Amino acid sequence: MAVLNRCAIAVAPKPLMREWTRPFWTREDMESLGEEESLYLIPTYDDEAGALALLEEHHNAIFAAELELWCLDPERWPAPRDYALFLGWFSLRFFPLVVDLGREPLATYAVDTRFSASLRQALD
User: Fold this and answer.
1) pLDDT tens-digit profile of 21-74?
2) How far apart are CA 70 and CA 86, in angstroms?
3) Which residues, 6 or more positions from 16, have their beta carbon under 8 angstroms from its beta carbon?
4) What value, to the nearest 5°, has the Cα angle with vertex 1 and ends 55 and 41?
5) Which of 11, 17, 26, 62 shows the smallest number of beta carbons within 10 Å?
6) Phi, then psi, of 26 in degrees rounded to 5
7) Are 40 and 11 contacting, i.e. CB atoms less than 8 angstroms apart?
8) Are the beta carbons of 104 and 27 closer than 8 angstroms?
9) CA neighbours within 13 Å on the CB side: how many for 20?
10) Taking a C-beta distance cutoff of 8 angstroms, is the pair 84, 35 a contact?
């Protein structure tokens, strides 16, 4: 068991986000939306102020990743996507301790955005 040198933020859609996704999904999809969270690893922080500062620093990347799950066309994304809108669209939970229970070494993989877009289209 190893403690990672990362903390985490869990992000789940609030009603405004669910409403925005309405054109992209069926009623069944809308009803289940919000039951799952996305988890983002962030640098470590010492206190709540540090966690919020990291959230503000990284909210654009998180916002874009969440929107891209529903719509690959950034032209259809809400604008402007500022920090206040982000906070209105997502509920958040912070995790100051991340433990790796895996046996194999932790690895990261860079994913080309063109590849991920092609993969999503193929899966649809």
Assistant:
1) 888 876 666 566 556 899 999 999 999 999 999 999 999 999 999 999 888 899
2) 16
3) 88, 89
4) 15
5) 26
6) -80, 170
7) yes
8) no
9) 21
10) no
Please name the residue that has the structure tokens 């950034």.
74
pLDDT of residue 122: 60
| Token pair belonging to 63 | 């916002």
Q: Which two tokens stand for residue 50?
A: 């540090």
Strand 7-13 to 38-42 pairing:
antiparallel
